[in-house]
Each structure stands twice: as C-alpha cells, then as structure tokens.
Amino acid sequence: MLENYHVSESFKVILDPKYNILANFSNEEFRQIRRRMISCILATDMAYHYKHLSTLKGKLESCEISNGNNFEKLIALDSSCKNNENQQMILDNCIHICDISNPAKNELVYNKWVDLVFLEFFNQGDKEKAANIPVSLLCDRETTNIFKAQIGFINYIVKPYFLCFYNLIPEIEPYIKNIESNLKRFELKDQDSKK
Questions:
Q1: How far apart are the first and last CA of the chain?
Q2: Alpha-carbon distances, residue 162 vs 28, 97, 168 (angstroms)
Q3: Residue 167 contacts residue 71 (beta carbons within 8 Å)
Q4: pLDDT greater than 90 at residue 97
Q5: What b/e string do you get for 95-116 counting C-beta neighbours within 10 Å, with b at 16 or more?
Q6: Is 68 left (phi over 0), alpha (psi -120 to 50) or beta?
Q7: What's the whole-model pTM score?
Q8: What band does 127 get if pLDDT is binned at 50, 70 and 90?
Q9: What is the pLDDT of residue 11?
C-alpha cells in the first residue's frame, strides 16, 4: 500500500533533527499529531473511498447537517472521544476530497492532470506487459478509453463525494460547477469519438 510508504517516509524526515518540525511538542502532543497524520494519509487510499463516504453521510444525517447548518455539532472543542473522532473524520475527508479533486479544477488544470495521470497509468501498463503480468485497470494504452474513464470517475467517485461534502461546506459550490462542466465536456468528447 503506497499510503503506508508515505507515512513511513514522512516520519523518517520529521524525525531527522534537521527537519523535525515537531521537536518542541510534548510526547503526548507528538503522539496525537502522529495519529492524526497517519489517519489523514491513509484516508487517501481509494480502497476506503466508499467507507469514508458512507461514514460522512451517516454523520451528516445523524447531526442533521445540511447546507452548512449544525456543523458545530461535529467539531465542538471538548475532550470527548466522540468529538475527537468527529474532528479526525472531518480531517480525513478533507484530505480525501482534495486527493480526488482534479475534476473540480478548471478545464486547463484538469486536462493537464488527466494527461499526467494517464501517462503514469500507461507507463505502468507497459511495464506490466513487458513483465508478462496482467495489466492493471486503466493502464492498457491500447484498450483504455480516457473519456469513459473520466466520466466514470466523475459520476461514481468525485461528484457523489462533493455533493455530500457540500452539506458540510456549501462554499465548495464553484467546484461542483467545475465538475459538472468537466463532465459535460468529457461526455461530448466521448460522443465525438464515436462518430
């Protein structure tokens, strides 16, 4: 799991005295920061995407949070375990939504990221073919339809997450508009490619 590697490498850097930005914290503060960092980094693992979304939806419903109202129920600053867990859930979701946010960017930035992501995927697929092992999903440059891949990514991963998160932070509405615009653009590209 790449995320575990990221956690390990992060703390290798932090524990080097030259870069230890946590050196002045108490042991308990260090442990708390470490726990939060690990949780946030692991939240970027797509294997947990639907679990994070389901948990977030459940919390929003149980706290009656909609259009940014009642947000304080999740982040009340007290020492209760429940509120610490809620705070961590919000942090994890913020990191995860940022990690999947390319379709929420303007067209120019999003197009650049699509190009870079598929360059990485196709290079991986080429290496898998050369090693005579099965090619991973979306990594075969000969069979992958980038337009359909982006349409699916937006419809099944990004858009539902942003629409849910909107109830927590309605200020993300401009990003939802970018998602809609990018989705329409890729749908048109897909239709044009069939002509």
A1: 41
A2: 34, 7, 10
A3: no
A4: yes
A5: bbbeebbbbbbeeeebeeebee
A6: left
A7: 0.86
A8: very high
A9: 87
